[in-house]
Amino acid sequence: AQSVTQLGSHVSVSEGALVLLRCNYSSSVPPYLFWYVQYPNQGLQLLLKYTSAATLVKGINGFEAEFKKSETSFHLTKPSAHMSDAAEYFCAVTPYNTDKLIFGTGTRLQVFP
Amino acid sequence: DADVTQTPRNRITKTGKRIMLECSQTKGHDRMYWYRQDPGLGLRLIYYSFDVKDINKGEISDGYSVSRQAQAKFSLSLESAIPNQTALYFCATSDEADPAANTGELFFGEGSRLTVL
To answer: How many other C-beta atoms can be found within 10 angstroms of the C-beta atom of residue A73?
Structure first.
């Protein structure tokens, strides 16, 4: 079955440091890929999505992700972390020719001053 | 006001009780979903509905039922709650006219935290 794997349930960075959150998908056909963010006590909101156009996708709040078919990866990055980036981040996939969104297990990002 | 509203936001109940979680949306979307979130497990799909006459089971539908009362309303019921249904429940909506080209963004409510004692 199609799935996504997020490596690292917790990531801690210092303010101003690079943020890298990892996501790998399992699929022989490139799916649609998404990153969602969940701030404390809130629902999820879309950060960015890949839908087979440009492989480098820019999202809100300075985040971006690069689709790499050879590595079946869709890692999320931000050059300089801000305290307000502290949240839980979910990678998700819609397998080709299906309607359902499958979520990864999430990565909690902590940002230290 | 939120576009996707869930009630109640918090509920504590006892084993065996019937519980209903309600969701209403003002986005005009046809598609609605119920997910549950558990620590370390991410979000798992319980049920989804692509229009008022369409109800589909997700990956963890056992012990749950749903009702799509109108385009804007989708409720989740636990007929006889058990402790392992303690979780954070999310309703979500999406608007995709072409199911074969799902580039869908889901719009989430703020969640309903359910505790079953």
So the answer is: 18
Confidence of residue B99 (pLDDT cuts 50, 70, 90): very low
Of A55, A49, A48, A62, the C-alpha closest to A18 is A62
Quick: pLDDT tens for A59-91. Answer: 999 999 999 988 999 999 999 999 999 999 999
Say which of B48, B58, B111 has its CB closest to residue A43.
B111
C-alpha distances (whole Å) from B37 to each of A6, A30, A44, A56, B40 are 16, 26, 11, 29, 9
Q: Which 66-85 residues of chain B touch chain A by CB within 8 A?
A: none
Question: With an 8 Å Cβ cutoff, is B88 touching chain A?
Answer: no
Mean pLDDT of B62-73: 95
Rg of chain A over all Cα atoms, to the nearest angstrom: 13
